[in-house]
Design goal:
60% of the residues lie in helices and 0% in strands. It is mostly helical and 178 residues long. The protein has a domain of 90 residues. The N and C termini lie far apart (98 Å). The relative contact order is 0.11.
Length: 178
Protein backbone atom coordinates (compact mmCIF):
# COMPACT_ATOMS: atom_id res chain seq x y z
CA UNK A 1 0.00 0.00 0.00
CA UNK A 2 1.26 3.51 -0.83
CA UNK A 3 2.25 5.83 1.95
CA UNK A 4 -0.43 8.41 2.82
CA UNK A 5 0.60 11.87 1.67
CA UNK A 6 -1.13 15.19 1.06
CA UNK A 7 1.52 16.44 -1.36
CA UNK A 8 2.95 13.46 -3.27
CA UNK A 9 1.20 14.65 -6.42
CA UNK A 10 3.53 17.70 -6.39
CA UNK A 11 6.73 15.62 -6.60
CA UNK A 12 7.18 15.90 -10.40
CA UNK A 13 6.90 19.71 -10.25
CA UNK A 14 9.56 19.96 -7.52
CA UNK A 15 12.05 17.30 -8.67
CA UNK A 16 14.27 19.84 -10.42
CA UNK A 17 14.43 22.13 -7.36
CA UNK A 18 15.07 19.18 -5.05
CA UNK A 19 17.92 17.98 -7.24
CA UNK A 20 19.44 21.48 -7.46
CA UNK A 21 19.20 22.06 -3.69
CA UNK A 22 20.39 18.60 -2.74
CA UNK A 23 17.28 18.03 -0.61
CA UNK A 24 15.36 14.79 -1.16
CA UNK A 25 12.18 15.47 -3.16
CA UNK A 26 9.85 14.07 -0.53
CA UNK A 27 11.40 16.35 2.15
CA UNK A 28 11.25 19.47 -0.01
CA UNK A 29 7.68 18.83 -1.19
CA UNK A 30 6.46 17.94 2.30
CA UNK A 31 7.75 21.29 3.59
CA UNK A 32 6.63 23.44 0.65
CA UNK A 33 3.34 21.58 0.21
CA UNK A 34 2.55 21.70 3.93
CA UNK A 35 3.13 25.47 3.90
CA UNK A 36 0.94 25.74 0.80
CA UNK A 37 -1.89 23.80 2.42
CA UNK A 38 -1.58 25.97 5.54
CA UNK A 39 -1.79 29.10 3.38
CA UNK A 40 -4.82 27.74 1.50
CA UNK A 41 -6.60 27.01 4.81
CA UNK A 42 -5.75 30.52 5.99
CA UNK A 43 -7.21 32.07 2.82
CA UNK A 44 -10.42 30.03 3.15
CA UNK A 45 -10.80 31.06 6.80
CA UNK A 46 -10.16 34.70 5.83
CA UNK A 47 -12.90 34.65 3.17
CA UNK A 48 -15.66 33.21 5.35
CA UNK A 49 -14.86 34.17 8.95
CA UNK A 50 -13.86 37.28 10.85
CA UNK A 51 -12.94 38.43 14.31
CA UNK A 52 -11.95 35.95 16.96
CA UNK A 53 -13.35 32.95 15.04
CA UNK A 54 -10.96 33.56 12.15
CA UNK A 55 -7.84 33.31 14.30
CA UNK A 56 -9.48 30.63 16.46
CA UNK A 57 -10.08 28.30 13.51
CA UNK A 58 -6.53 28.78 12.27
CA UNK A 59 -5.11 28.15 15.74
CA UNK A 60 -7.27 25.03 16.21
CA UNK A 61 -6.30 23.66 12.77
CA UNK A 62 -2.63 24.19 13.62
CA UNK A 63 -2.98 22.60 17.04
CA UNK A 64 -4.78 19.54 15.60
CA UNK A 65 -2.29 19.08 12.74
CA UNK A 66 0.75 19.43 14.99
CA UNK A 67 -0.73 17.22 17.71
CA UNK A 68 -1.48 14.44 15.23
CA UNK A 69 1.98 14.79 13.68
CA UNK A 70 3.71 14.59 17.06
CA UNK A 71 1.56 12.11 19.00
CA UNK A 72 -0.34 10.22 16.28
CA UNK A 73 0.28 6.49 16.12
CA UNK A 74 1.58 4.96 12.89
CA UNK A 75 1.67 8.30 11.05
CA UNK A 76 3.84 7.91 7.93
CA UNK A 77 6.99 10.05 8.06
CA UNK A 78 6.11 12.15 5.03
CA UNK A 79 2.60 12.90 6.30
CA UNK A 80 4.13 13.78 9.68
CA UNK A 81 6.42 16.35 7.97
CA UNK A 82 3.51 17.76 5.92
CA UNK A 83 1.33 18.14 8.98
CA UNK A 84 4.11 19.81 10.96
CA UNK A 85 4.69 22.38 8.19
CA UNK A 86 0.96 23.04 7.80
CA UNK A 87 0.26 23.08 11.53
CA UNK A 88 3.15 25.38 12.37
CA UNK A 89 2.05 27.78 9.62
CA UNK A 90 -1.46 27.89 11.10
CA UNK A 91 -0.29 28.17 14.72
CA UNK A 92 1.94 31.13 13.93
CA UNK A 93 -0.96 33.13 12.44
CA UNK A 94 -2.04 34.09 15.95
CA UNK A 95 1.40 35.62 16.53
CA UNK A 96 1.32 37.78 13.42
CA UNK A 97 -1.67 39.90 14.37
CA UNK A 98 -1.22 43.65 14.43
CA UNK A 99 -2.34 45.81 17.36
CA UNK A 100 -5.40 46.80 15.31
CA UNK A 101 -6.26 43.14 14.67
CA UNK A 102 -5.78 42.35 18.37
CA UNK A 103 -8.24 45.12 19.28
CA UNK A 104 -10.69 43.80 16.64
CA UNK A 105 -10.24 40.29 18.09
CA UNK A 106 -11.18 41.53 21.58
CA UNK A 107 -14.06 43.66 20.30
CA UNK A 108 -15.44 40.77 18.25
CA UNK A 109 -15.22 38.34 21.18
CA UNK A 110 -16.98 40.80 23.52
CA UNK A 111 -19.73 41.47 20.94
CA UNK A 112 -20.15 37.71 20.34
CA UNK A 113 -20.41 36.92 24.06
CA UNK A 114 -22.86 39.77 24.62
CA UNK A 115 -25.07 38.54 21.77
CA UNK A 116 -24.95 34.94 23.06
CA UNK A 117 -25.91 36.08 26.58
CA UNK A 118 -28.91 37.94 25.12
CA UNK A 119 -29.83 34.93 23.00
CA UNK A 120 -29.40 37.01 19.82
CA UNK A 121 -27.98 34.30 17.57
CA UNK A 122 -28.18 36.37 14.37
CA UNK A 123 -25.96 39.06 15.86
CA UNK A 124 -23.63 36.44 17.33
CA UNK A 125 -23.22 34.84 13.90
CA UNK A 126 -22.75 38.25 12.25
CA UNK A 127 -19.80 38.99 14.55
CA UNK A 128 -17.85 35.92 13.37
CA UNK A 129 -19.16 34.99 9.89
CA UNK A 130 -18.91 37.19 6.84
CA UNK A 131 -22.10 38.15 5.08
CA UNK A 132 -22.52 37.48 1.35
CA UNK A 133 -21.91 41.20 0.78
CA UNK A 134 -18.61 41.05 2.71
CA UNK A 135 -17.55 37.92 0.80
CA UNK A 136 -18.43 39.55 -2.53
CA UNK A 137 -16.45 42.66 -1.53
CA UNK A 138 -13.34 40.48 -1.18
CA UNK A 139 -13.56 39.76 -4.90
CA UNK A 140 -14.25 43.35 -5.95
CA UNK A 141 -11.50 45.14 -7.79
CA UNK A 142 -11.49 48.89 -7.10
CA UNK A 143 -12.76 50.75 -10.14
CA UNK A 144 -14.26 47.62 -11.68
CA UNK A 145 -18.01 47.26 -11.32
CA UNK A 146 -19.18 43.68 -10.81
CA UNK A 147 -22.57 42.73 -12.23
CA UNK A 148 -25.31 42.97 -9.65
CA UNK A 149 -27.54 40.04 -8.81
CA UNK A 150 -30.43 42.49 -8.44
CA UNK A 151 -32.37 43.20 -11.62
CA UNK A 152 -32.43 46.84 -12.58
CA UNK A 153 -35.87 47.87 -13.84
CA UNK A 154 -35.91 49.16 -17.39
CA UNK A 155 -37.33 52.63 -17.84
CA UNK A 156 -39.04 53.47 -21.11
CA UNK A 157 -37.50 56.47 -22.83
CA UNK A 158 -39.48 59.66 -22.66
CA UNK A 159 -41.58 60.21 -25.79
CA UNK A 160 -40.30 62.76 -28.23
CA UNK A 161 -42.74 65.58 -28.62
CA UNK A 162 -42.92 68.15 -31.34
CA UNK A 163 -41.49 71.46 -30.37
CA UNK A 164 -41.33 74.81 -32.00
CA UNK A 165 -38.87 74.99 -34.90
CA UNK A 166 -35.43 76.32 -34.06
CA UNK A 167 -35.04 80.04 -34.73
CA UNK A 168 -33.38 80.84 -38.06
CA UNK A 169 -30.50 83.31 -38.26
CA UNK A 170 -31.47 86.71 -39.57
CA UNK A 171 -30.10 87.32 -43.00
CA UNK A 172 -28.99 90.90 -43.66
CA UNK A 173 -30.46 92.75 -46.64
CA UNK A 174 -27.27 92.23 -48.61
CA UNK A 175 -27.95 88.48 -48.52
CA UNK A 176 -24.46 87.58 -47.22
CA UNK A 177 -24.23 85.73 -43.95
CA UNK A 178 -21.02 86.07 -41.99
Amino acid sequence: MDEVSLTKWLDPAFEYFARESGIPTDYLVAQQGGEGIGTALEIIADYFTKGWLNKGIQFAAGLIANSYAVWGKDVPDRLRRELLAMGTHELLRILTISPTEAADFQRSFAAFMSAVQRGDWNTAAATVLKTPTEIRAAFTVPGLQMPSAVAVPKVAPAPITASAPAPQPKVPASGVVF
